[in-house]
Amino acid sequence: MSGKKDSFLVNRLKSVGWAFKGAWLLLRTEASIQIQFCVAIAVTIAGFYFDISKTEWLFQVAMIGLVMSIEGVNTTIEYIADFIHPEFHTSIGRIKDVAAGAVFIASIAAIIVAAIIYYPKLF
């Protein structure tokens, strides 16, 4: 094969396209990320409604990105684990539990950040 290699820019654009495809697939097919996306929309609307500060926006956007990203990694781990060992196996179960635990930790952190931002505005 002596085909011409794509340029750096073309390769980056292809990578962005594949990443978008993966994010869209995740959002379209996974219930947990759909729920998280709805929560993200709700807190974004709340952010505009309560006119949160730039710093609060930064924390809110960071937590939305963190939770949704970790959920994507968790889903990937589950797919890989199921592909490698489709039947039940205690080690695979432990791997899946730990990955889900990472999402749980990120979600708790996001809830704490949301409480810090919105509690004073609500009460």
From TrEMBL:
GO BP annotations listed: phospholipid biosynthetic process
GO CC field: plasma membrane
Positions that bind substrate: E71
Keywords attached to this entry: ATP-binding, Cell membrane, Kinase, Lipid biosynthesis, Lipid metabolism, Magnesium, Membrane, Metal-binding, Nucleotide-binding, Phospholipid biosynthesis, Phospholipid metabolism, Transferase, Transmembrane, Transmembrane helix
Source species, domain of life: Bacteria
Residues the entry annotates as binding a divalent metal cation: E30, E78
Tagged with keyword Disulfide bond: no
Membrane disposition: Multi-pass membrane protein
Cofactor: Mg(2+)
Cofactor note text: Mn(2+), Zn(2+), Cd(2+) and Co(2+) support activity to lesser extents.
Subcellular location: Cell membrane
Chain segments annotated as transmembrane: 31-51, 98-119
Active-site residues per Swiss-Prot or TrEMBL entry: E71
InterPro entries referenced in this protein's UniProt entry, alphabetically: DAGK (IPR000829), DAGK_sf (IPR036945), UDPK (IPR033717)
PANTHER family attached to this UniProt entry: DIACYLGLYCEROL KINASE (PTHR34299:SF1)
Entry protein name: Diacylglycerol kinase family protein
Species of origin: Gelidibacter salicanalis
